[in-house]
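re: that chain from earlier
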Amino acid sequence: MGQLTRGDERIDQFRSDVHGDVIRSGDGAYDDARAVWNGMIDRYPTVIVRCRGTADVIRSVDFARENGLRVAIRGGGHNVAGTAVCDDGLVIDLSEMTGVRVDPDERKAWVQAGATWADVDHETQAFGLATPGGVVSDTGVAGLTLGGGIGHLRCKYGLTCDNLASVELVTANGEFVTASKDERSELFWGFRGGGGNFGVVTEFEFDLHPVGPDVATCFVFYSGDRATNCLQAYREYVSAAPDEVSTLTSLGTMPDEELFSEDGVDHFKIGFLGCYSGPAVEGEEVLAPLRELAEPIADVSGTIPYAEFQRTLDEDYPSGMRYYWKSLYLDGLTEPAIDRIRYWADTAPSPLATVDIWQLGGAIGDVGIDESSFAGRHAPFLLGVEANWHDPERDDANVEWVRDCLADMRQFSDGSVYLNFPGFLEDNDELVRTTFGSAYERLVAVKDEYDPENRFDVNQNIKPSI
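^ sequence. v structure.
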């Protein structure tokens, strides 16, 4: 890759060619511009360009290609792997491109690639509509969508990428194109779960569904002493639950002083979070069994605005904290799997760490591999292992815990992972080959056509064959 120095006249020319800010090392805004949500990520790009529109993106891609610069693409900057920034390269920062336009009659939304889910919910909920997003509202739309997108509406309306109608993007050669089922269909297939391998997406078109404005929710906690019994009952519950139910289970200390009493705040717990994407009155009845698995130590369930529910976990994931997350698709919640989940959650080195179980199924399984590249539709559950902590001196202990947990839990999995929870992609080649399986070579063919020189490699990378 090429090298540019701070005083290089090529950067001065680039600055005059774009409308957005061009920031380089030594500029007053540099440290803020290179910082991302995960406090473990500390990288030093040569140039950061805060694009204000598609023309800036085209010029940025051309500039990187002309000067042999590695490219990182920043949307919301929220991805745990830190791929929104790179050392000694160019960061194409889309965070100022946050526009959202809604057509309530056609139930469509057009979302720029720097938007967050809070931006989307704000516009779509004005019309009682939503598209499946994530579970933290300041997550970026782009990264979540391109990696699949597992959120609160998944079992009823599918993954975020399942609701993608088209994308507009800039390819590695600087060409602006549209991809959809009817136009560049192979490229569109690749973007629906295959990550940001094939270009810089500037805008997403989503299908919308009637949701809210109020939804029935479950948010209940039990003592960790009851975790095994609760998980056994939960397994039976989700096996019969309607598709309107999407739930997430977390095990850990979760020391929330506002939720828990002083004598229980530092104790091991199990929590259930979910919503019902149908009529709220009906949903309260359907979710009720999750509130009766044992004697709750906290229960803040109820009917609330959907947009508020989307913000429920925001305060638990502040910018600048240290994060290391990995995942596995589980074959099921067998008794041995439950035992190991409980063990690993109870031995976490940080009280903020959790072992999570994401209910899958429903509409997720209705989409075939020929329709999207997302590779996790076969599994009934996703295991997410989240190390979250503050002290840099605890980095090694937390990372080791996650890796040891995943190594143990592979006995209950085919080894495939959710690409939005990939650690730091330290095992990228094996990770993507195992996860995509038979679809991997098809993804390579898309890469060969649209990015044969692998200009876009700061991601869950599919390497070209040529």
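The first strand starts at residue 21 and ends at 24.
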